[in-house]
Amino acid sequence: MDLGRCRELVGAISIFVLILLVVEQASKANQEHFGEPRSMSEVMALEPEERNKWLKAAQDELQSLVENGTFELVLLPSGHKAIGFRWVFWVKRNADGSIECYKCCLTSIRAILALAALKDLELESVDISSAYLNGELKEEVYMCQPDGFEEKTPQWVWRLCKALYGLKQAGRCWHEKLDKVLNQLGFEQLTCKHSVWVYLCDGVRLIIPVFVDDITIAGKDKAVIQRVKDNLRKHFKLQDLGPTSWLLGVQIKHDHSKCSLSISQRQYALDIVKRYGFSNYDPVSTHMDPGACLKPHTFLPAPCYIKGTLDYKLTYAPSPEPELFTSFTDADHAGCPNTGRSTSGYVIKMGTGAISWSSCLQALVAD
């Protein structure tokens, strides 16, 4: 591939990602458009039907804490301070964008998805319920009782027996617990990627990428995958999600007949269009005019461009090229008119689909 074509590939991908990042950053102050309350007081101010859904989610979460033995109610010992408690409410969606449930609470992934397409692997997912609550605390931690569910007087607090969401050590405790269980099942953690475990024994190959409580199992044999899920169920309360169709906000469609797998974020893109009131606008064919400078006003057509590309997908399939990986890289010279810095970019493909890409200004000013 010539340098010009490489530059087009890098530019097309990186500009689209840049658009999404800009819109996402701008949306952080507008989370209320998704109808997600920010506190228990906001929940109580909702209409009865909506309020009851969130209260049930909170009650279910509290019940999971009780069943897991996460805390015990004690008087706060003298000389100790109780940390605060804050409810975090969010909505979990199905692959079609409909609400799956109300919840109270990426390169390696793409590479594994590409491998699943090229080797025709099965993909199954499980969700660990209240994952962080499985981590075992070594420290003595006290916490105020949650708003809306207080028992006795404020002098009574929770002494945490296990980790809880929001604790600085919660992620580490959960990771150590999961690693211990997977090691018992014969899996080994990759030294280069601590969120991926592999199993290689007697011709059986399994790969498990983990993102907090979302666990995906990739392998040839469905029966072997099911045995892994059954063994995990002995240690954790989990929900068997079946064939992977939705992972980290990405919709996945696996076509075994064609040895291909496609990923897309149609619902995420549609949310952006609706959030900024562009639903009735006509889509545009390009994200900016040719020769336009990268300034804030040039991103105004972005939602219209996203509206016209709702069904765009990234597809992984066998490539006619003999190499498993193909990479492209390019750079300009002092291309930034404001800083005089050069731009470097690359695209790495596995089969027919990109698994990693970047385009950014170099740190030094060009000579």
The average pLDDT is 81
Major beta sheet, strand line-up: 7-8-9-10-4-11
- H/E series, N to C? HHHEEEHEEEHEEEEHEEEEHHEEEE
What profile does the largest beta sheet have?
A: 6 strands, antiparallel
Radius of gyration: 24 Å
Structural class: alpha+beta
- Alpha-carbon distance between the two ends: 28 Å
What percent strand? 25-35%
Low-confidence stretches: 1-34, 98-105
Task: Please count the helical segments.
Answer: 8
**Total E-strand runs:** 18
Shape: globular
Helix content estimate? 25-40%
Organism: Ganoderma sinense ZZ0214-1
Domain Reverse transcriptase Ty1/copia-type: 106-288
Protein name: Reverse transcriptase Ty1/copia-type domain-containing protein
Keywords: Signal
Notes on the protein architecture:
The protein contains eight helices and 18 strands. It has a domain of 122 residues. The protein has 367 residues and is α+β, with helices and mostly antiparallel strands. The two termini are 28 Å apart. The N terminus is likely disordered. The strands form five sheets. It has a six-stranded antiparallel sheet, with helices on both faces. A four-stranded antiparallel sheet has the order 12-13-14-15. The longest helix has 25 residues. The radius of gyration is 24 Å and the shape is globular. It comes from Ganoderma sinense ZZ0214-1. This is Reverse transcriptase Ty1/copia-type domain-containing protein. It holds the Pfam family RVT_2. Keywords: Signal. InterPro entries: DNA/RNA_pol_sf (IPR043502), RVT_2 (IPR013103).
